[in-house]
Amino acid sequence: MAAWQLIRRVTAAVLSDLERGLRGLLAGNEQLVPLLAFPHYPHTFSRASKSDDFKVPSILDEAVLWMAAPKNRRTIEVNRTRRRADRKLLKPRRDIELCPNCSEPKLKHRLCGNCYSYVAFETKNIRQKIAWLEGGPLRTPAMETVVHYNDDAPVTNLGKRIVEQKRKRPHWFPAA
C-alpha cells in the first residue's frame, strides 16, 4: 500500500468521526452537513433526522446586523452646526429690480406681473373682437390684421382687416 493511500484513509476516518460528532451536536440539521469537504471522501450519510422542522437560527439572516449604524455619538455643537450652517441660510436675490413702467418689483430680463396683466387683458379683448368679426373658428381671412383705437389717425390701410377698439390706445402698445 502506497503512502498517499494510507494518508487518504486516515484522513477520511478522521473526517468521518468529526462529521458524526457534529451531526449529533446539531440534532439532525442537514443544512450544515457535510461541514468539511474532502475531494476523495464519499459523502454518504443518512437523511433520517429526529425532527424535520427543526432549524438552527442563523445570525446572518437578521438584516439588523447588516444595516449601517453610527459608531460614535455626535456632540450637540456638531449637530447644531450641521443643521444651522451658513450654507443652509437663504441667499439674497440679486436679480430683482423695479419695473420702469409701473415701478413694481420684477425679475431682471422678465416682464413684470402687473404689466403682464394689462397685456393679457388687452390681448383677450382683441381676440374676442376678432372672434366676433369672424363668426366662428376656421374662418380667418388671409390678410393682415390692424388694431385701430379711437385716438389713432384715420384708417387708410387698404387690403388689411381692421379691428376697431372703442377706447384709447394703451401707452405701452405702439401704433403700427
From TrEMBL:
Keywords linked to the UniProt accession: Mitochondrion, Ribonucleoprotein, Ribosomal protein, Transit peptide
The organism of origin for this protein: Eptatretus burgeri (Inshore hagfish)
GO CC aspect terms: mitochondrial large ribosomal subunit
UniProt key word Mitochondrion: yes
Function (record text): Component of the mitochondrial large ribosomal subunit (mt-LSU). The mitochondrial ribosome (mitoribosome) is a large ribonucleoprotein complex responsible for the synthesis of proteins inside mitochondria.
Protein known as: Large ribosomal subunit protein bL32m
UniProt keyword rRNA processing present: no
Location (main, coarse): mitochondrion
PANTHER family, per the entry: 39S RIBOSOMAL PROTEIN L32, MITOCHONDRIAL (PTHR21026), LARGE RIBOSOMAL SUBUNIT PROTEIN BL32M (PTHR21026:SF2)
UniProt-listed Pfam families: Ribosomal_L32p
Localization: Mitochondrion
